[in-house]
Amino acid sequence: MAADLGELLVPYMPTIRVPKTGDRVFKSECAFSYDSPESEGGLYVCMNTFLGFGREHVERHYRKTGQSVYMHLKRHVKEKATGAAGGAIPRRRNGKVFLDLELNRDFNGDEYDCEDEAKLVIFPDHFEIPLPNIEELPALVTIACDAVLNAASAYKKQEPDSWDEEIQVSKHARSLRQQDNGVRIPPSGWKCQKCEMKENLWLNLSDGAVLCGKWFFDGSGGNGHALDHFKDTNFPLAVKLDNLTLDIADIYSFDEEEAVLDPQISEHLQHFGIDIIPIQRVHNGHHNTDNTNGMRPRVSEWEVIQESGMKLKAVYGSGFTGIKNLGNSCYLGTIMQVLFSIPEFQRAYVGNLQRIYDYSPLDPSTDFSTQMAKLGHGLLSGLYSKPPMKSELIEQVMKEEYKHQPKGISLKMFKALVSNGHPEFSSNRQQDAQKFFLHLINLVERNCVGLENPNNAFRYLVEERVQCCQTQKVRYTQKVDYLMQLPAPIEAASNREELIAYEAKRNEAEENMRAPPEPVRARIPFTACLQAFTEPENVPDFWSSELQAKSAGVKTSRFASFPEYLVVQIKKFTFVVDWVPKKVDLSIDMPDFLDLSRLRGTGLQAGEQELPDLTPPIVLPEDTRGKKAPEIDESAAMQLAEMGFPLEACRKAIYYTGNMGPEMAFNWIIAHMEEPDFAEPLALPTFMEPGPSVASSGLAATPLDNHPPEESIAILTSMGFPRRHTVQALKATNNNLERALDWIFTHTEREEEEEETSDALSDMADTTEPNDSAFSNANTHSDSTLSPDQDASGPQIKDGPGRYELFAFISHIGASTMSGHYVCHIKKEGRWVIFNDHKVCLSERPPKDLGYIYFYRRLSSS
């Protein structure tokens, strides 16, 4: 038999590989679906690429690659046998559990046993070889099979558990001696005992001294008094007094000179009157709540948003599939639930599922369109949201085998792809759902397939009117946007007197080192938010082209077009000294129906005079006038880059805010981060040479002759692309060769249409500035108007009436976007449904007033 198996495998030996260091083995998730070894058909792992495939998709991979040998993995989940007293029999080590799988944790507890089955399958005849079969298989095949079976998860580096390997338990943790000196640490009002610094404070766990840190561990600044205290006393451990929770505590050992873990941190803190057991935090999908300086746990917010305490009816089927929380991944799950409730995204990805799968690359785990189609199908197919049937339950009891019903889908592969290379989204920390929405919009834009771009549903034009206060002349510009940021003016709160009284009590409690009073939530009318949006705002460092000098300027924003779907973000978060976004506790009576028609821009009005179309001159000292690079505070740029922003964008922000520090530059970044050339290097015209008009947004000026360099055109045309298409690609990507190549590939289907355009229009496209006449029809109510910075082949604007109906909203629980939990509510079939990670239920009381991001759809004109 051994010889027979050896001869059988000989033709396939060149295709069987042993996983090397760096190879990812996908043995817990199919590349095209959410099938796993726990699924009915198990999972097939290619013995060459180590990609996993469900039963329905393994044939596709075989036909595309010719790879014939796969390892079939199947996990059987059974109920544990019970003893005479009814309790579970103590679990013995099961020799049949040999797969290193991180699968459905709901069925790996004390009530169930797992049996794993593995075998080699040879296609197309489906010849099966049970494993392990060491004696009968060739040595290479045996080594390869063992390596696959014992390989770590493909996402191991992204798992929260991996942090434990980097941070070790301190040698002082268990033997730490704490002084009985009667020190009690108040919940707020901390100051350094030596310099009264209020930021970057550390509590010494031996004597309770609160002192400032230095440039260590988290990069925060200070005067180093915590380290001086260690040198004087030899007390080794200190914990950072910022967002202190039971599961997240920054502990530093001065003696070991590194960040450490302290298993007894709860007891060590209780010694100084800090009880963090009830201070819970939303982490890894558990019920937790933030506690920040001077604030009590927001239990009511948690209960209201999640509709806790209510008997919510679970719903199943198409469109009611939950998403498992991977550990602070709810920001991603809520955004994807809402996006795939929109027909444009359903059509673009799920409607083109077979086409996308058929044309997917050899490694579909790295293809954005494939993973979007997979996610959409997982949410909409209903395959992973099936209710348990009575007959199945009876059968399972009789056979003592648990045939689990899938509880949502796990987005490990999708998260690994969309977060790849991003400093924030690739981490295991909580993130801002609004930032992820814009990040995903950018990915869709770069990877959209076919003629239909689902982003068209969100894209609209903003009309910005800037007026010089001295000359009264104006400038109108337009820009593309995808999201409306709505201010929340606290001063307009209907319970303003109550808020003032609370603030006085809070300040008094802080001064007297007492516990703060019960927080008061601001109630702000929606009309006040809309009024704040329409009011003029000052333009800092406004340069008047009429005066040829800096002057006072004001800016107002209106809609130049209305999108099919309007996304409204409530500006609930403010940035404090430590750069952590803190949330303002407020509620807004968001309407179910919204009419923004009065906010439509009007363009230049009769009697208004336009400012001259001139670029601000760049004034430099005489000795630097001939240099090409402007002076930039590189240390400030690096400080911003450490927050996760592209370095080139940070350098531009520093430059355009006149080297006035990272705070001003940070505001510039927030205002311009969605512009297409946001991360492009700083590009300026020749100094003192006038250039084209630049919007008040502060974009880098470009020379009047915007024709791409001939050498760049030659490189792309040498690849076989038409010259005119090459010129358009370079113009659309600011002459960036790599992005231009991507642009060509994503716009190839429009090339035939463009070839029919007249030569006159072609010449005009090559010589006219992109902003010229871009908005001639922006104020009409046609179905589609062009965006301001693209030609006919670029993104489209779908204009229409400004009347909308609320159909979804995302709520945030917690005090900061860097922590907490997200839940979304979506209106389906006339009913509000709550999506709370993998749990999907009919909503009883949707908390519309506590939302963070709202999604409105346009009402039909009929």
UniProtKB/TrEMBL annotation:
Domain UBA: 631-672, 707-747
Record-annotated USP domain positions: 321-859
Pfam families: UBA (PF00627), UCH (PF00443), zf-UBP (PF02148), zf-UBP_var (PF17807)
Entry keywords, A to Z: Autophagy, Hydrolase, Metal-binding, Protease, Repeat, Thiol protease, Ubl conjugation pathway, Zinc, Zinc-finger
Reactions catalysed according to its record: Thiol-dependent hydrolysis of ester, thioester, amide, peptide and isopeptide bonds formed by the C-terminal Gly of ubiquitin (a 76-residue protein attached to proteins as an intracellular targeting signal)
Database matches in Gene3D superfamilies: Cysteine proteinases (3.90.70.10), DNA helicase RuvA subunit, C-terminal domain (1.10.8.10), Zinc/RING finger domain, C3HC4 (zinc finger) (3.30.40.10)
Biased composition (Polar residues): 768-790
Keyword Zinc: yes
The enzyme's E.C. designation: 3.4.19.12
Signal peptide: none
PROSITE patterns reported for this sequence: UBA, USP_2, USP_3, ZF_UBP
Span of domain UBP-type: 168-276
Region (Disordered) location: 749-798
Active site: 330 (nucleophile), 821 (proton acceptor)
GO MF terms held by the record: cysteine-type deubiquitinase activity; zinc ion binding
Keyword flag Repeat: yes
Annotated positions binding Zn(2+): 192, 195, 212, 225
GO biological process terms, semicolon-separated: autophagy; protein deubiquitination; proteolysis
Enzyme class at the top of the EC tree: hydrolase
Similarity annotation: Belongs to the peptidase C19 family.
This protein's name: Ubiquitin carboxyl-terminal hydrolase
